[in-house]
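Honest question from a wet-lab person: if I give you the sequences of every part of a complex, can you actually get the arrangement of the whole thing, not just the pieces? Trying it with mine:
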Amino acid sequence: MQHTVSLTALVKASLAAILIAAIALVTFILPAEYNIDPTGVGHKLGLTLLAEAAEASPAPPQAKISRAASKQVIEITVPAGKGIEYKFHMNQYDKLSYEWMTDGDPLYFDLHGEPEGDTTGYFESYAIATLDSMKGSFTAPFSGSHGWYWNNTSDEAVAVQIIVNGQFQIIGLNP
Amino acid sequence: MLSNSDRTYRVLLLLVLTLVSANALAHGVDDSTRSFLQQNTGVQFVPFLYIGAKHMLTGYDHLLFLVGVIFFLYKSRDVLLYVTMFTIGHSLTLLWGVLGSIEVNAYLIDAIIGLSVVYKGFDNLGGFKRILGWQPDTRGAVLIFGLFHGFGLATKLQEFQLPEQGLLTNLLAFNIGVELGQLAALVFILIAINFWRRLPSFERFATLTNTLLMSAGLMLMGYQLTGFTLQYL
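Yes, you can. This is the full assembly:
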């Protein structure tokens, strides 16, 4: 069964635990992870290189992914009498070609973009029409969320299939 | 007795095989996992199951805590009870954290997870009994720390800003994956500990092991708290 060690052993164990942790942190972990190297040991061991390498390429993985072009087929449904948005995050000058079609009925839509971090509600429209399909492409004029607003004024749900190809990250539905 | 250990070996063999194949698939999986999470919408049951299991099996902070929890549990019934408490705890906050979009600081949560390891190591040494004269309820502690481990899991998923579409199903798949990963890890830990218990060195090194557990927990805390501090500098 679980034993209770003597007070001396407990104090010794606790101090040893703190000491080992402190040494490992100061000499290995902090230099390698954060380039914090008070003793200089991390530098001598070459551990600070790890942290420097991480700092030198601060490209967030999201940006890396959005650079690589990818193709996606997305199916959404616009409920009867409702309007929904489907958006992608794109960096400035990212390109997107698209093709979409409804399962029959035409829908009112507004293809637009909203700048990142904007709180005024500003948006820029690239295309506004009422159609049952459309094909095209655009280059994002600014970083932010870009995509469609669809409005279904009929009394039946309309399915939309979207095929996109380009540099983007899916944000998804925004009812 | 014989059939019992026979069964154990069979389970072990099965798990080893599963792991080997999983590892073959997992080659260079981090980037692919990330791009998968960011580019796929809709229900993706098995992939999320896999990500959850992988996260648990490679998450040393969760595993260290589990080692601490079952270190002195000799009866299977106790192991089951304590692991259930841990599972209830982390499932609650994983689901609540992601579905409720609860924003918790990942560094602070991971520091608390480190603290849970320190706590359990200290508790295993009988530290609370010695210092306070009584031991805080161990089941309660596992449940409460389980809640924090769940928030830790939630912050990892939230980093990916998952689309709303199919979120609940994907989240449940991730959660089930976490439990499967935990079960697989647990089998290994239990077999190792049960084997070690028969040897005289177990008693001799019990104090040392728990001291190292505390130390590892302190390292995790120092690592995460430094990260937290740097975030605001």
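Two things worth pointing out. The CA atoms of residues 197 and 203 of chain B lie 8 Å apart. Residues 45-231 of chain B form one domain.
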